[in-house]
Amino acid sequence: MRIRIEKIAEAQGGLPANDRQLHIDGQEQDGNVSLPLEYTIEGNLIGEMEIGEPVIVARDTRNGVKVSGMFTTSPVQEINGRTFKTRNSVYHFKFLEK
What is the tens place of the pLDDT at every residue in 3-35? Predict the structure, then answer.
């Protein structure tokens, strides 16, 4: 199933979002920050989106640029409508047509 995910907020009590200007896509980041706000990916969802499990996406687009890779969150803590929350982040998601 094709999906678009965008980070829309920091999760209360989690790591702060990295500054967009300091974040380097594709490189391991400082372990004291999480993904920046407005970070977006598109790709194919691997498995189901469930509480207690990470969201895994075979990504083909990151921040509007075509680039293959894997996107994995920490375990999902809450799903509410079209948003889900992990330890550090709140994401909006939308299923896309192929």
Answer: 999 999 999 998 888 876 666 666 665 667 888
Residue 25 pLDDT: 67
**Total of domains in the chain:** 1
87 is written with which tokens? 């330890």
Tokens 């509410």 belong to 80
Q: Are strands 56-62 and 65-72 parallel, antiparallel or unpaired?
A: antiparallel
Range of the domain at 33: 2-95
The pLDDT of residue 34: 82
Q: What is the pTM (predicted TM-score) of this model?
A: 0.88
Burial pattern 24-56, b for ≥16 Cβ within 10 A else e, equals: eeeeeeeeebbbbbebbbbbebeeebeeeebbb
Q: pLDDT category, 68, cuts 50, 70, 90?
A: very high
Contacts of residue 47, Cβ cutoff 8 Å, sequence gap at least 6: 53, 56
Contact (CB, 8 A) for 87 and 35: no
